[in-house]
């Protein structure tokens, strides 16, 4: 081939390449570490208790009483947080049973403080509501309070690979075709998915009050027949919890501007009552449904299986706080500051340093819990043996 022809081909090739956009191979995305699933994975810093807490006599006395009440249950449970082992609590509980004198001395002698991660805390509040109800359905009292259904089961879906089956199997049911499917959500249950199965243990008069009682997880029914029926958490349908207050804020419905509703439980209830159709659809965004059982004796009971006490019991994520552990809160809501005992959990209480403070029953409890939204710092109190072990790591 003549040189001139070769040069023409080379020039043409150069022009072709120059006119093209060369797309570089995309760089591999950075590999992010998986989120910490326990306090031990997140990291803990330990320090002596003395000098860090302004522990009042009242706080110490109520905390010690709740701690002692928790001990039988603590000693039967595995600590999911990875911070303690059973012998840590055996020593602390033995000391609590024989302690006399200053209650604050018990905590100073037997515990050290631990900050989980940054320690940046967020706390809400819950209470034991009392709403109107009845044992048997009657006009004006027709919202069913359901017991735990026997077809609610935990099972891995058949089409889920073995490699993805980690943690606890999901909740669901077996449908008419024999397939494992998610359990009925709130809208389906409200429309009668469980009707006619004899699961009703009582009825409530007001669907809005019943919705918020479900969020609290326990409460009282002031019965039309006379007396009070206490109901407690028996289980949940496995559907995700959606906080409708957050949805309302995103929609601009809650806030301090003219035309907005107060950002509290009372403000949310006001909106739902003034806008019943939109309010019903708003509540149905929370697909979670709580099943109940009748409680007799002392209560209400937390998930630890012991009664929760006003201004002493706190709900936690047990992956980050051991059940039964004392918790010290220092928040921008001073009424929630001080010592609490981890005795409960909840569907919305997830992650490190997330707490839900218990305020008992009655109008003051409703007001405080409904408006509780506190931020600040949290310290977990760990038995000395656990704190020493963590310090050596």
UniProtKB/TrEMBL annotation:
Keywords: Cell wall biogenesis/degradation, Lyase, Signal. It catalyses: Exolytic cleavage of the (1->4)-beta-glycosidic linkage between N-acetylmuramic acid (MurNAc) and N-acetylglucosamine (GlcNAc) residues in peptidoglycan, from either the reducing or the non-reducing ends of the peptidoglycan chains, with concomitant formation of a 1,6-anhydrobond in the MurNAc residue. GO terms for biological process: cell wall organization; peptidoglycan catabolic process; peptidoglycan turnover. Pfam families: 3D (PF06725), MltA (PF03562). GO terms for molecular function: hydrolase activity, hydrolyzing O-glycosyl compounds; peptidoglycan lytic transglycosylase activity. SUPFAM superfamilies: Barwin-like endoglucanases (SSF50685). Residues 1-17 form the signal peptide. InterPro entries: 3D_dom (IPR010611), MltA (IPR026044), MltA_B (IPR005300), RlpA-like_sf (IPR036908). It is an enzyme of class 4 (lyase). Its EC number is 4.2.2.n1. The keyword Ligase does not apply. Gene3D superfamilies: Barwin-like endoglucanases (2.40.240.50), RlpA-like domain (2.40.40.10). SMART domains: MltA (SM00925). It comes from the Bacteria. Residues 130-293 form the Lytic transglycosylase MltA domain. This is peptidoglycan lytic exotransglycosylase.
């Amino acid at each position: 081939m003549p040189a001139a022809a070769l040069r023409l081909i080379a020039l043409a090739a150069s022009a072709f390449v120059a006119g093209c956009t060369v797309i570089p191979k995309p760089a591999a995305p950075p590999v992010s570490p998986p989120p910490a699933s326990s306090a031990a994975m997140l990291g803990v810093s330990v320090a002596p208790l003395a000098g860090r807490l302004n522990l009042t006599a009242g706080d110490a006395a109520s905390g010690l009483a709740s701690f002692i009440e928790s001990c039988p249950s603590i000693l039967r449970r595995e600590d999911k947080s990875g911070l303690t082992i059973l012998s840590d609590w055996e020593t602390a509980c033995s000391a609590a049973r024989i302690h006399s004198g200053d209650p604050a001395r018990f905590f100073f002698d037997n515990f050290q403080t631990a900050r989980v991660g940054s320690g940046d805390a967020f706390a809400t509040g819950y209470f034991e509501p009392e709403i109107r109800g009845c044992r048997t359905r009657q006009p004006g009292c027709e919202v069913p309070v359901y017991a735990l259904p026997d077809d609610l089961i935990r099972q891995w879906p058949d089409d889920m690979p073995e490699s993805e089956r980690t943690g606890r199997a999901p909740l669901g049911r077996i449908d008419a075709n024999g397939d494992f499917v998610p359990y009925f959500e709130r809208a389906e249950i409200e429309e009668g998915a469980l009707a006619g199965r004899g699961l009703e243990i009582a009825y409530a008069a007001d669907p809005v009050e019943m919705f918020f009682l479900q969020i609290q997880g326990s409460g009282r029914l002031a019965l039309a027949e006379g007396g009070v029926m206490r109901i407690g958490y028996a289980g949940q349908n496995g559907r995700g919890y959606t906080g409708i207050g957050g949805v309302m804020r995103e929609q601009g419905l809650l806030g301090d501007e003219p035309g907005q509703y107060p950002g509290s439980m009372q403000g949310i209830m006001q909106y739902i009552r003034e806008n019943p159709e939109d309010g019903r659809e708003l509540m149905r965004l929370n697909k979670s449904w709580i099943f109940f059982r009748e409680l007799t004796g002392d209560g209400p009971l937390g998930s630890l299986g012991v009664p929760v006490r006003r201004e002493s019991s706190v709900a936690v994520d047990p992956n980050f706080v051991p059940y039964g552990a004392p918790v010290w809160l220092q928040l921008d809501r001073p009424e929630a500051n001080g010592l609490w005992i981890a005795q409960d959990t909840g569907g919305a209480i997830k992650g490190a340093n997330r707490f839900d403070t218990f305020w008992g029953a009655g109008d003051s409890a409703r007001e405080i819990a409904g408006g509780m939204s506190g931020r600040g710092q949290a310290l977990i109190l760990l038995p000395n043996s656990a704190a020493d072990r963590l310090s050596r790591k």
